[in-house]
Amino acid sequence: VNRNGGLFWNEDWRAGRLFFDGTWTIYPRLFGPEIEEKFINSNQDETQFDTTAVMSYFIYDQGDYLLDRLSVGANYAGNGRNLHIHGFKRSYSGRYNQYDSGSSQPIQ
What we know:
mainly beta; three-stranded antiparallel sheet; about 5% helix
């Protein structure tokens, strides 16, 4: 999805009454024509280009089985320019990490 000349990525969005987590679902067309028709970006950037604004975020999770998520980003708008920087990292190690468990069955 193209938004203001940039890729719509890592942002929450809505389709009618349904809420979608932008970390995992960034392509509304994937869910069918009804969801695509009702697609609404709930985080529209209303920054005017004659002002300078910097918005940033930092999210870090740590959990069981070495769940390790990091999400950082910054948005800059000013002097006729609009810049969006997003970063995401994950480590979901799980029971056997990313290594083979020695079994012919899939790792669960």
